[in-house]
Amino acid sequence: MTDSATTLWQHRLCDFRDAVARKPMPGCGATAVVSADLGLALVLKGLYLSQQHDASVSRQALIDEGEALKQRLAPLAQEDMDAFEAFMAAVGRDEDDEGRADAIHAAADIAVEVPLRTAQLCDAALALTHQAGANIEQQFSSDAVAGARLIHAALHGVLLNVDANAGQLGSDAARDRARHARDDLAQRADALLEILTNAPA
Fold first, then answer.
1. Hey, what CATH topology would domain 3-197 get?
2. pLDDT digits (tens, 9 = 90+) for 139-154
């Protein structure tokens, strides 16, 4: 994790909340990352506590996968903030600047890529939650389902950044690719949540 990402995660929770409420950044992307990370933590809670009661190789493999996802997800909060700031700087360039359009397209590439990557990790976290179901003891299943709901909401929240920025991409093909990726991720997440929330207790 980068130093800047570490700094964001070292904020007091109340300070982060108030910054979200009162400042341009962190915005919905960074907030979605934090929400997804907390959701994944709830899923891992179910696995860890179940593992303490009855250790198994398969459960430990799921724990290791979840921890790896957490490490990949967390830095994207800062990356989202950096991408937004770069995009706004490009948009804010003088309209007579010949390089302005190219700068906007380049910044939009990143402003779309980061939320798509975040959504892909949320998708992986939902898939992990599905795989983990049989490995989480019943008394912790509500934590896992609550975690899945947070991850699902975070995925849809971060995809709003794709919706907002895809129009500034440099070609129709790039815009179509972004929107197709966005739709596929949203549909998969909805299907997985439906399975998770309707699973027998």
1. Four Helix Bundle (Hemerythrin (Met), subunit A) (1.20.120)
2. 999 999 999 999 999 9
